[in-house]
Amino acid sequence: MKICAEHWTRLRKEVEDSGMTHLVSRSGKEAFQKIVDPLTQPATPQNGADNFDPLMGANFAIWGAAIKDGGLAMMAGDKCPLCECCRENPGLDEDWIKGSIADELNHARQLGLMPKVQ
Fold first, then answer.
1. Is residue 68 a part of any domain in this protein?
2. I want to staple 25 with a disulfide (CB 3.0 to 4.6 A). Which of 6, 30, 45, 97 is the partner?
């Protein structure tokens, strides 16, 4: 499973629009480390910036939703989960993008990485 270039660009834009670009990994190596570190050291307000990446978090949330809705067959090949989800439900891809980023923004706020809603 792999998010296509068009959907990845839309996901990045949503991260940018939410003001979380500064929390996105700057390299593949950094993204990998942010994926591995939470396995032994979950994100907390003290270390949250060290292992929190809203783009990767949203990506994994979308993958999870795709597997839940489409089954393990979604993992066969390089299917874009967002393209697949909107085949039968037009517009659902946008809901998944906005919803996953909203969840990441809420998590970033809980970790103290983003300002609370006023």
1. yes
2. 30
pLDDT of residue 88: 82
Does 13 fall in a domain?
A: yes
pLDDT at 44 over 70: no
116 within domain boundaries = no
What is the tally of structural domains in the chain? 1
Range of the domain at 91: 5-24+54-110
Q: What is the pLDDT of residue 33?
A: 81
Of 8, 13, 111, residue with least CA distance to 62? 8
**Residue among 18, 103, 89 nearest 60 (CA):** 103
Tell whether 82 is covered by a domain.
Answer: yes
* 109 has a pLDDT exceeding 60: yes
pTM of the model: 0.84
**Packing angle, helices 54-70 and 81-88, rounded to 10:** 50
